[in-house]
Each structure stands twice: as structure tokens, then as C-alpha cells.
Amino acid sequence: MLNNRYLWGVFVSLLSILVTWLLSNGSTIRWINALFMTGLISMLIAATYFVVNGGFFNNFSRGFSKLFKIMSNNPMNDDFDDSPDGGDSGEERKAWASQMLITLTLTIGLVDLALSFILLTFR
Q1: Please, is 14 exposed, middle or buried when counting C-beta atoms within 10 Å of its C-beta (0-12, 13-18, 19+)?
Q2: Could you tell me the residue range of the domain that residue 64 belongs to?
């Protein structure tokens, strides 16, 4: 079970639903609001981590360094050896921990948002 991220996603989603219910003191409106905010924040965390882990900012900074080298007409370091996708970094980009974090936060976000909309329509 420790390696199955889908089971962890279900477990953490149920835990999130239970915690938001307990914190809402039994009020349906407060529960819907808490579910929506928890889902929104979880999806924001997943999206931010996905963008950062994907190397967008690394490539963005490499592009600017290349641009500044060209604009300064500096003959030193004229070549650009790094690949734009970050393949030369040697880091393992698809590690288990990062995929688990993205999967869990995305699952929590989707389940909580969907449940808040379902509860809102049937209220």
C-alpha cells in the first residue's frame, strides 16, 4: 500500500473530507466552503509543484542568461551547451516522492472541489 499512490489518494481524500466535516461543526455551508477552499489550495499546490518540477524556471533563466551573453557581445562563453529540457542536469526528475506529492494534492483538490459542487447543487 505504501507504493500505491492511488490508494494513498483515496485515503488522503477521505481524510480531508472527514477533517473538513469535523472543522465545520456540522454546518453544511461551512463544510462546502471548507471543501472548496481545501480543493482550491490543493490544486494550486499541485500546479505550482508541477511547473517548478518540470524545469520551467530553469529554462527561463537559461534563456535570459543566453540573451544577456549575446547582448553584451562577450566572446567568452559564447556556446550554449545545456539542452533546453534540462536533460544534462543529471537529476532524476521523475522521483517517487515528487510524483506522489503531485498525485496526492491533485487528487485531494479534484475530489474536494467535485464534492463541494455536488453538495452545493443538492443543498
Answers
A1: exposed
A2: 5-74+90-121
